[in-house]
C-alpha cells in the first residue's frame, strides 16, 4: 500500500511540473520534429532542451512503464522553434552518418 501511495504522489508531482512548464510555453501550435524509439527520443529531447528548445514527448507514458515493449514516441516543439529544432536534429544525424 505504501508503494502505491508513493507512486501516486510521484505522478501528482510530475503532473504539476508538466503543467508549470506548459503554462510558461505556448504549446497551442506544436509540430513533430522526431519519431523513434523511446531511448533515441530521450537523447534527442535532451539535445534540444540543452539548446534551449522546450519539448513535449507524446506517447511517452508507456515507455516509462515498459520500455522494452513501447512503441515509437514523438517529440513535439512549438511551431516557432521548428526550424531551430530540425537544424539541431540534422546536425546530429549528419554526425551519426559520418561515424
Low-confidence stretches: none
CATH architecture: 2-Layer Sandwich
Radius of gyration: 15 Å
| End-to-end gap | 49 Å
Helix content: 55-70%
Outline type: globular
Share of β-strand residues: 15-25%
Just give the CATH class. Answer: Alpha Beta
Instruction: Look at the structure and give the mean pLDDT.
Output: 80
**How many domains, in number, for the residues?**
1
Largest sheet: 3 strands, antiparallel
- Count of distinct strands: 3
Helical stretch count? 4
Strand order of the largest sheet: 1-3-2
List the secondary-structure elements in sequence, H or E: HEHEHEH
How does the SSE layout of this entry go?
Layout: H1 2-24, E1 30-36, H2 38-50, E2 56-58, H3 61-65, E3 73-78, H4 82-98
Antiparallel strand pairs: 1-3, 2-3
InterPro entries: DUF2007, N-reg_PII-like_a/b
Protein name: DUF2007 domain-containing protein
Pfam family, one: DUF2007
Structural commentary:
This protein starts with a helix and ends with a helix. The mean pLDDT is 80. The longest helix has 23 residues, at 2-24. The chain has a single domain (27-98), classed as Alpha-Beta Plaits (2-Layer Sandwich), CATH 3.30.70. It is an alpha+beta fold and 99 residues long. The protein has helices at 2-24, 38-50, 61-65, 82-98; strands at 30-36, 56-58, 73-78. The protein is built from 4 helices and 3 strands; from the N terminus they run αβαβαβα. The chain is globular, with a radius of gyration of 15 Å. Strands 1-3-2 form a 3-stranded antiparallel β-sheet. Helix content is 59%, strand content 16%.
